[in-house]
Amino acid sequence: MAFIEEEGRTLEEAVSKGLQRIGLPRDEVKVEVLEHSRKFFGLLGTPRIKVRLTYETRSAKLHTATDLLQKMLAHMGLHARVEGSERHGEAYLNIQSDDSGLLIGRRGQTIDALQYLVNRMVNRDADAAVRIVLDTEHYQERREERLTRLAQRLAAQVKTTGRAAVMAPLNARDRRIIHLALQADREVSTSSKGEGALRKVLIAPRRSERSQSREV
User: Fold this and answer.
1) In angstroms, how far is the first alpha carbon of the chain from the final one?
2) Rounded to 5°, angle at Cα 209 from 204 and 212
3) d(CA 115, CA 203)
4) Confidence at residue 179, expressed as pLDDT on a 0 to 100 scale
5) Is the entire prediction scored with pTM above 0.90?
6) Can you list the domains of the chain with their CATH numbers?
7) Mind listing the pLDDT tens digit for each residue in 161-184?
8) Taking the mean position of all CA atoms in its chain, how far away is CA 62?
9) Integer Cα distance of 149 and 153 in angstroms
């Protein structure tokens, strides 16, 4: 949970200012009045009210990301509608547009670039970062299926040859898909190598406890 504090001349004004800051509707926050000062004898001073708005960080990030992406697509001259939802702990933004092919780009480069920008702009507070995934026409779902099948084929190859396999550079989400696809396989292990955009996934034979004990 996260919270912000805001002031106004009335309760409605204070709450409205707070909602604008976090980008959430009224029904997704809890409002607590902290201070309420009134005019002295009805003559002096200005009445002020201070409130605390408590909210789920992930919900705020989702609303912010949805609104940001909608504006970015409009500036690009694309007619699109963005729908935001939460899936498996991620903020999932689905783009409905007749220009889906243009949005995806060659080998997904355009949607990857948009996803990177939205994540960087929304997740400035690293302590409350939320993974944001962009999708259109179920492209990311098909991509995850392809990567999972590729991981399984490479794992089978590693088991047969006994030699490690190194994949081409992948973004953070794709590397995560590979790791998750093989995490239950007791015969291979996965690890990431390299720096930045050049990070790759290494799939290697998992050493048995017997072989490890002989090395010791």
Assistant:
1) 47
2) 75
3) 26
4) 94
5) no
6) 2-55 (3.30.1660), 59-137 (3.30.300.20), 142-215 (3.30.1370.50)
7) 999 999 999 888 889 899 999 999
8) 8
9) 6
